Amino acid sequence: MPPLTLGVNIDHIAVLREARKINDPDPLMALEICAQNGADQITIHLREDRRHIQDEDARAIIRASRLPVNLECSVDAGIIDIICALRPHRATLVPEKREEVTTEGGLDVKGQRFALDITIERLSAEAIPVSLFIDPDLETISLSKQLGAQMIELHTGRYANLYAMAHTALPYSHHAIEALDLPRSELKRLLERELETLRKAADYGRSLGLEVAAGHGLNYQNVGAVAAIESISELNIGQSIIARSVFTGLAEAVRGMKALCVR
Ligand code: PXP
């Protein structure tokens, strides 16, 4: 069983800064706090629309971080030029739509096969390992392996939405709108089924020799069952940690999440 590592996504520190377009808070200041409080990796997303992390942030974070930096990006050729120059520890390819609030689903690996093939080849030529952010679907996992990815990250958004609907009064987001009218008992059944889908996907990925990460929508309430999946070796978590840090400080927020990322 691989050990479980925690990647802290610090994009939302830059979201706060960009709200005022000033230099405060600086995501660079998070690096040492994350490292000292249990983070194993720093994750950032250099979006095409640069809504949070800027090129200079990415450059400075990669230079200064003593933890590996996992850089999320789209397959856009201009962005990949920048990633090749930045040389992060790993590139995670994610789908991007400008109008979305966040990354709302995994890559369409089949539909984007050609673009992914070229991108993975370019990054591999620069010795930058590639992870693909995908839905927990066996065919997509198999295709990811064929395309030469070293790692996959399973999208846990549907799990997180179902968890929120089954265990709280809040409808979480439009991801699970199809299930909004269902009774709680049925939501709990769907939640168990989604967990089983994640488990099977993780086991399948590992059986193919892929490293398997997971992320999106994980928080202090719902992370336990995903952390318990033995084939998953890494969780990438952003929103819930940065949100909690507003009230507790970043050190305690990271420490609290790390304590839950055990099995
Ligand atoms: N992993 C990937 C690939 C992501 O794009 C994101 C952000 O959408 C996350 C993990 C972290 O998600 P969250 O901020 O919901 O924890």
Provide structural commentary:
With 263 residues, this protein is α/β, with parallel strands linked by helices. The chain has a domain at 5-155 and 234-260: TIM Barrel (Alpha-Beta Barrel), CATH 3.20.20.70. It is 46% helix and 14% strand. The chain contains 11 helices and 8 strands. The protein has helices spanning 11-20, 30-36, 55-64, 77-86, 113-125, 138-146, 157-167, 184-207, 223-227, 239-248, 250-260, and strands spanning 5-9, 41-45, 69-73, 90-93, 130-134, 151-155, 211-215, 234-237. Strands 1-2-3-4-5-6-7-8 form an 8-stranded parallel barrel, surrounded by 8 helices. α2 (30-36) runs parallel beside α11 (250-260). The longest helix is centred in the last third of the chain and has 24 residues, at 184-207. It is globular and about 50 Å long. The model has no long low-confidence stretch (mean pLDDT 94). Residues 9, 45, 72, 92, 94, 102-103, 133, 153, 215-218, 236-240 line the site of pyridoxine-5'-phosphate.
